[in-house]
Specification:
The protein is an alpha+beta fold and 172 residues long. The protein has a single domain, classed as Umud Fragment, subunit A (Ribbon). 38% of the residues lie in helices and 25% in strands. The chain contains three helices and seven strands; from the N terminus they run αβββββββαα. Strands 1-2-7-3-4-5-6 form a seven-stranded antiparallel β-sheet. Helix 1 crosses helix 3.
């Protein structure tokens, strides 16, 4: 029984650490941190469904603007209109070479295209959707998932720690 409880404790601690690290990287560093040219983002709207669901965690890789092609999903910082100061993940639908390279993007589920995007706005091209982090993110962002993943395991860990300290004092 002790071994099962210890394994459960390790799994819960690792899960909580993974969630906290994900939140820290995204929130505290305001997505301005890049690890080896890779960044993590959370999808917050349904504009890219069915490819990416709300609360999915995606990984983007910094690339030169010459490497971006029509059909790539890019993450960029909006500079005008409804997109201003928002981090957006949309698909490149057209590229034009004018004074600067111009990228035209649109959400898969959207009917209209976004304002023009320039290379200096682009954080990177989406290379992966993290299935594990997306699953955890979806669970944590649902009331039942929060209770099952954070509240109950946290209460069990705290209760176990209190009991261990109580029994340790009695033994002394």
């Amino acid at each position: 029984m002790k071994i099962i409880l210890q394994v459960f404790k390790i799994i819960v601690v690792l899960l909580v650490v993974l969630v906290v690290l994900t939140i820290l990287v995204q929130r505290v560093f305001d997505n301005n941190i890049s690890l080896g040219g890779y960044r993590m983002f959370t999808i917050v709207t349904g504009s890219m469904e069915p490819e990416y669901q709300v609360f999915d965690i995606i990984i983007s890789r910094e690339v030169a603007t010459d490497e971006i092609e029509v059909g790539d999903d890019v993450v960029y910082l909006g500079k005008e209109g409804a997109m201003e100061d928002k981090i957006v993940t949309h698909r490149v639908i057209r590229i034009e070479e004018n004074e600067k390279k111009e990228f035209y993007t649109q959400g898969i589920a959207n009917t209209g295209e976004d304002p023009v995007v320039y290379g200096d706005q682009i954080y990177g091209v989406v290379v992966s959707k993290s299935l594990v982090l997306s699953f955890i993110s979806n669970l944590v962002n649902s009331p039942l998932g929060f209770i099952l993943l954070i509240a109950i395991p946290g209460s069990i860990l705290i209760g176990e720690e209190i009991m261990q300290r109580f029994f340790k004092k009695e033994e002394e």
